[in-house]
Amino acid sequence: MLSRKARLDAHGEDSSYFLGWKEYEKNAYDDVQNPTGIIQMGPAENQLSFDLLESWLASNQDAARLTKNGESVFRELALFQDYRGLPDFKNELVEFMAEIRGNKVNFDPRKLVLMAGATSANETLMFCIAESGDAFLLPTPYYPGFDRDLKWRTGVELVPIHCSSSNGFKVTKCALEEAYQQAHKLSLNVKGVLITNPSNPLGTTMGRDELNDLIDFAVAKKIHIISDEIYSGTVFDHPSFISIMEALMDRKLQDTDLWSRVHIVYSLSKDLGLPGFRVGMIYFNNETVVSAATKMSSFGLISSQTQYLLSKILSDKKFTRNYLKENRKRLKTRREMIVAALRNAGIGCLKSNAGLFCWVDMRHLLSSNTFDAEMELWKKILREAGLNISPGASCHCSEPGWFRICFANMSEDTLNLSMQRIKALAEKIQQCRRGRVTHQDSGCNSRRRSFSKWVLNLCSYDREPDR
């Protein structure tokens, strides 16, 4: 009944990243109704500053009511809009993007293409600049959803740039070249490199040397650079964020061929905590690609009501400056809390300065240095500790034992409870390993909650080696 395209299994739905969400939905934690349920630490949502936005809305009810100077603009917004977007919104958006980057980079609203979220933006980019079967290189670990966003419907292949914990998972010249050569061994035409800066799942920003190595590589290979910068406003500690556009301008590359092959993806899902508003965008320096992407944007438009409301919020410069400052402060405080709690449980984290998550090192809790052992530990965390976190294998990490834990999508009390649970599990695993208690009495085979077949018999999706 289904078409070949619809039957493709490249969506990645059978990855533990998505499977954990499904199990959470069946047994969601609630501090009153279900206090022993699974705590959701999988989605990178920012709920720490909702009160700031709610306060603004309460003080600016004209915007929320779709009125202007007391007059309704409902009819105007309800009619079909030009799919290039509302000019006021695009003007405010580029100013907001510049503000995040310390006004070191200016953006032209005519080069901005609006899309319904970063997912749609990334897929549209693939359709515009790559053919089915072409390849993009991505540093590992990377966001699990890229397997869906970039390749499911486009037919584009993803080749990992393997990064190592030995240098904090930084991208090196050697790793770039190895990935490029691997793609050619597979007879793949490399169209470009896609980076996430700040990184998801690492929570780190790329330094100037890394960006310059990437630029040199793209120049030498004559390929594109896509910089996904949706976490750029979450940088809460040093070093500061450097946009790929800033790195290009510092080297005065505006009049080179590379300038037209560099593209930025952005959204308001992370920096303003509005994933449900579905606001994404792509910034191009190439008018031909702008035109093509604008035509394709008609398949994923942002509602005019959403654009209107956000244009009013972003036009309040005093509010946006205060929001960015306060949100960064809250993210830093929350990260310090989770890092301290994990350290108290004997668990370390990669040093990070951005994002809504920590890249957590649980290698010492593995029964062996394998991805099978990582999946075994993930199942324990899910069914015994009642926490849904993302295993490194779902992020294509080349080293077993790393996990992404999100910290901004819950209350402080819930975070504290989650840390108590993970500490108890870590202590139990260590006790079992040291043989301080018997196998029967230790709880090493503790009660198993009613668990779906998929958890006990996970598919091999996450364990297959990257190409």
Automatic annotation (TrEMBL):
The keyword Secreted does not apply. One of its GO terms (biological process) is fruit ripening. Its cofactor is pyridoxal 5'-phosphate. Pathway: Alkene biosynthesis; ethylene biosynthesis via S-adenosyl-L-methionine; ethylene from S-adenosyl-L-methionine: step 1/2. It is an enzyme of class 4 (lyase). Keywords: Ethylene biosynthesis, Fruit ripening, Lyase, Pyridoxal phosphate, S-adenosyl-L-methionine. CDD domains: AAT_like. One of its GO terms (molecular function) is 1-aminocyclopropane-1-carboxylate synthase activity. Residues 41-421 form the Aminotransferase class I/classII large domain. Its EC number is 4.4.1.14. It catalyses: S-adenosyl-L-methionine = 1-aminocyclopropane-1-carboxylate + S-methyl-5'-thioadenosine + H(+). InterPro entries: Aminotransferase_I/II_large (IPR004839), Ethylene_sulfur-biosynth (IPR050478), NHTrfase_class1_PyrdxlP-BS (IPR004838), PyrdxlP-dep_Trfase (IPR015424), PyrdxlP-dep_Trfase_major (IPR015421), PyrdxlP-dep_Trfase_small (IPR015422). Belongs to the class-I pyridoxal-phosphate-dependent aminotransferase family. This is 1-aminocyclopropane-1-carboxylate synthase. It comes from Vitis pseudoreticulata (Chinese wild grapevine). The lineage of its organism: Eukaryota, Viridiplantae, Streptophyta, Embryophyta, Tracheophyta.
